[in-house]
Here is the input.
Amino acid sequence: MDSLYSLYSQSPKNMRQLRECAHNLDIALRRIGKVFSVRWVASSWRAVSAVWQSYPALAQHFREASEDDTRDSRERAKFKGLLSKLCSINFLKSLALMADVLTELKNLSEILQNRKTTLPKAHDIMTTYVKRIESFNRYPGQHAVDASQAEEVMEFKGEELRVGRSPIIDSAQFIRAVADNMKERLFTTTANRAQASVAANRKEAYNSLINQMAVLNPDNWDHDNPRFGDNEVRALCDVLHVNQQEAHLGFTEYKASGGRNIPNKMKKLLMAVDTLSPSNADCERGFSTMNNIITEYRSKLTTKNAANLLFISSVGPPCRQWDPLPYVKTWLGKGRRAAHSTSCMARRYTEEESYFSPLWKMWKSV
Here is the structure.
């Protein structure tokens, strides 16, 4: 995959020839990027999907380049080796495995980036997707099924496959490693590179927080215990800095109604739970917005003005919902002139001889 990325990202000629092959085969070409050295899972998924979709175009380009007399022998040998590896059944099965796993990870990432996803919901979704990925050992994904069918006929998308010497990814080991990595990185409240002792404490804190939030769900209530959830609500109030007495009374009324009515004393705790973000997507959006605001041409922008612009761009309403009339009235009320006012002084232009004046006169005479 990295060889494909280097081949087409560093050579416009190769990229142009690949587009021609894709056009001849009526294939919508996608950009091939890196897979293992990028931070965002969506980028890895797009790169693998691009190779999967552009498979015939890649094979045709490698074949034509390996027979191109305008290239030297080293380049022709390189493309011949890439063609041999691309048409290997081992490469196809490894590509299918990565496509299936990355599709699940991409879908999970998109759900966690949604602002409406709460922490309890995110926990349930993450648990579900870990199980979905682990199930690939028993129930192969769609890409793996397609690769198995191609192996039976030794042909994939019109290209003949062969048994090559390229290594194949151990599917069971790969899936187990991905699932273990997800459990290690997702179900915790600490950074990815924290010390082992800190990570263990943070995992315990995360599990305790999830258990405390679970008592707020009426489906988890033990109706035989009238004091069910009291200790968890008190602990949750300490973590979220909510009044214990008020939340406890609201939780008691909430249980008495069978979860049908939410008392006002309970709403503050529920709102505090919903404000906990399950991902850092909003932080990344803020960084992108800040980079659009603070550019090299606005280097003198003060911190206060930059913060105000960032706040408006991040959480402000769209322009079509903004009513400028109150601000226009305030502007005119301070004695300033309107845009259509004719009583203001006309702009004066000073006639200065410019360095390019002779050139301008020459253009007028043409």
User: Anything to note?
Assistant: Residues 25-29, 32-38 have pLDDT under 50 and may be disordered. The two ends are 58 Å apart (CA to CA). The longest helix spans residues 89-113. The chain is about 60% helix and 0% strand.
